[in-house]
Amino acid sequence: MKYAEKQLFFQFSVKKNPIMPCYSKFCYLCASLTLLNEIVMKELIEKIQETYAVFAADAAAQAEKGNKAAGTRARKASLDLEKAMKAFRKASLEAAKN
Predict the structure, then answer these.
(1) Diameter over CA atoms, the chain
(2) Is residue 81 a contact partner of residue 55, using CB atoms and an 8 Å limit?
(3) Residues 44-56: pLDDT tens digits?
(4) 61, 67 Cβ separation under 8 angstroms
């Protein structure tokens, strides 16, 4: 819904029902929060996938070639992955509530 359409809807609802503007604002706010949560979850999924790719490459380099520096990078990536997973879990629970 474009801004002009929202304004028209708001003005129309005020004339019809004085309680409606509060409800429409609330609905708009809920829809905005839901959309924002979806965007956050998608970004977290992308971050998790990127971090896992880094982790898998470094862990394989350590396991196959004995590369100690790759092991350090893999451990760091695993910590970043843990943080991203916790953030995703939090966002997922928030989405389930709405």
Answers:
(1) 74
(2) yes
(3) 999 999 999 999 9
(4) yes
Q: How far apart are CA 69 and CA 83, in angstroms?
A: 22
Residue type (1 letter), 3: Y
DSSP for residue 66: -
3-state helix, strand, coil in the chain (%, to 5): 90, 0, 10
Q: Which residues are within 8 A (CB) of 47 and not within 5 positions of it... i.e. 6 or more apart?
A: 84
Cβ neighbour number for residue 95 with a 10 Å cutoff: 14
Confidence (pLDDT) at 35: 79
For CA atoms 44, 50, 55, 60, the dihedral sign is positive
